[in-house]
Amino acid sequence: MPAALGAFLALWIKRLTAAEALQPAGPRRVEDRKALDYSFFGYSPEAVGARSANTFPFKDHMTPMISLHQHRILVTQAQDFMGPAVCELLGRLGASVIADARVLRSPALAHEVVQAAGPVDAMVVNLALPAPSSRIDDANDAEWRDVFEVMVDPLPRLVRAALPGMRERGGGRIVVMGSASALRGMKRASSYSAARGAQLAYVQAAGVELAPDNIQINAIAQNFVDNPTYFPAEVQANPRFQERLKREVPLGRLVSADEDASLVAYLCSPLARCFVGQVFPVAGGWVVR
């Protein structure tokens, strides 16, 4: 996480914990000031303190205050990776979600998806395929081409297709669902990590170029996040995987799909206008930069 963002969040967390002692009730009640603090994170003050140590119980205990009403948001490859969780949460926050399930191998398909969606305020670029596990010697041209065809080539096509409409509407937000494998070396993941790294490099370059148009493009670099593509139920049930979690992930568990999707929702919202070409690691401490 960028240092500036970490410091900013730390300040707000400090305010949350000290909210009871801010000042006695008066013309501006303590409760009102607390509500302002909590609304930064998207939850009502009554819900704070209900959070479990192991989960992020958005549905059961939290009242959303980030509103995406009247926001139209396109989510690509919506049945894979983070697509289901992101679509579900965005919908709960009031967005009109355009969920397209197609894998965007064809060069013309990205433009078709954006055109079919109509005007959008935000786009979640969710691209995925099962990660190959070839050794370096065996990661041949066909594997390399396949991974890049699904996860890299559609990204600039989608962005190019979305830009005219976003410029016409005065701006927009693009969130790329990436991977922390681009930030930390992993054995037997050369083609996959290279493709995810290309995504992040593109986001950083596009971010600084598009910022003057009030279009913010950012990426989430995740690993060890609950999702059906990379951590299906059968993997999570394996005792060896649970041992690996405890050994490699400081958090000691998978990041929940709702935790990850909540960051997506924030980055799609008007609250996130200040972030430009940022890469946000979400990996339970597996990577910290």
Structure at a glance:
It is built from eleven helices and six strands. The protein is α/β, with parallel strands linked by helices.
Largest sheet, if any? 6 strands, parallel
Any idea how many domains?
2
Poorly predicted runs are 11-58
CATH superfamily of the largest domain: NAD(P)-binding Rossmann-like Domain
Q: How much helix is in the residues?
A: 40-55%
Q: Just name the CATH architecture of the largest domain.
A: 3-Layer(aba) Sandwich
The rounded Rg comes to 20 Å
- Order of strands in the sheet with most strands: 2-1-3-4-5-6
The overall average pLDDT, rounded, is 85
Could you explain the architecture of this structure?
The protein is an alpha/beta fold. It has two domains: 1-52 and 59-65, no CATH class; 66-282, NAD(P)-binding Rossmann-like Domain (Rossmann fold). Helix content is 43%, strand content 11%. The protein is built from eleven helices and six strands. The chain has helices at residues 3-17, 30-41, 58-61, 83-92, 109-117, 141-151, 154-168, 190-210, 233-236, 239-248, 257-268, and strands at residues 72-75, 96-99, 122-126, 172-179, 215-222, 279-282. The chain has a six-stranded parallel sheet with strand order 2-1-3-4-5-6, with helices on both faces. Helix 4 packs across helix 11 (257-268), helix 5 runs parallel beside helix 7 and helix 6 (141-151) packs parallel to helix 8. The protein is globular. It starts with a helix and ends in a 7-residue tail after the last strand. 36% of the residues are buried.
